[in-house]
Design a protein that fits this description.
Elements lengths: L2 H16 L18 E5 L22 H19 L7 H4 L16 E5 L3 E6 L5 E5 L17 E7 L2 E7 L18 E10 L2 E9 L8 E9 L15 E3 L5 E3 L5
């Protein structure tokens, strides 16, 4: 046996013993929807097709005690804007948007990386990352450590991808700045309306805060030539004071 062949066999044998060489995920089956690629927001613009835009969002109905909190927060934000101050947001506070707001941040695109066992969603804004597991069941909500992105599992329903997410911590700013409890449950349905336009239908349930589920849709357009760029937030000097206004920390204090 030649020396190079023998060395290759030895390395392969070592990996098989140590378990360091793990087989790659199998490719996406042809019968399923392949979402791989970069997708930018598809919104009402001059060149947009009205038939491909997302449908109107459903109503937001909170339970009375949370409705008061939400209205007070919106009023404080409006007052801050009138004073020329920032009302505070993940962007100004240098924290992740988290779910579900990370799925639609201004003009920034998202990248979807798909294999047979997992779908990874990376946003350009703040370089946030979600992992959607396709090969395992959802956990009990009490067993999921609360975080910005929670725990997401998905399954295929024909040509649509259905994603179930739980475990979002209560400090994460919700859709339209809505308050939410640790029982919030998000269900998404990704489906193509054309080969190059993708819709993410989002349903938010929260038995503690909401009187009824909230529904809305985020639309994306395929961007085959786009390369994602780095977006890192490194300004940690801003904070919210007790009135909700953004202030700046001084380094010598």
């Amino acid at each position: 046996m030649k020396r190079g062949v023998a060395l290759a066999c030895a390395v392969a044998a070592l990996f098989s013993i140590t378990g360091d060489a793990r087989p790659a995920d199998p490719p996406v089956p042809a019968a399923q929807l392949d979402l791989t690629g970069v997708w930018g927001p598809y919104r009402a613009e001059r060149e947009s097709d009205p038939a491909l835009l997302p449908p109107p969002a459903g109503p937001v109905v909170l339970k009375p005690e949370y409705a008061k909190q939400w209205e007070a927060r919106r009023a404080a934000e409006a007052d801050a804007i009138r004073r020329g101050e920032s009302p505070g947001s993940p962007a100004t506070l240098c924290v992740p948007y988290g779910m579900p707001r990370m799925m639609s941040v201004a003009i920034y695109p998202v990248e979807i990386i798909q294999t047979a066992k997992r779908i990874t969603i990376v946003t350009e804004a703040f370089s946030e990352v979600r992992r959607v597991y396709l090969d395992r069941p959802q956990a009990r909500i009490e067993d999921v450590p609360p975080g910005y992105y929670g725990r997401s599992v998905g399954h295929w329903d024909g040509k649509a991808l259905v994603v179930d997410t739980i475990g979002i911590k209560t400090t994460v700013v919700g859709y339209q700045n809505l308050p939410h409890s640790d029982q919030m449950h998000i269900v998404e349905r990704f489906h193509l309306v054309t080969p190059d336009v993708l819709h993410d239908d989002i349903l938010i349930e929260d038995p503690i805060v909401l009187e009824r589920p909230v529904t809305y849709t985020v639309a994306y357009r395929r961007m085959p030539a786009y390369e994602m760029v780095e977006f890192v937030c490194d300004n940690n000097r801003e904070y919210l004071d007790q009135t909700g206004a953004v202030r700046m920390r001084l380094h010598d204090r």
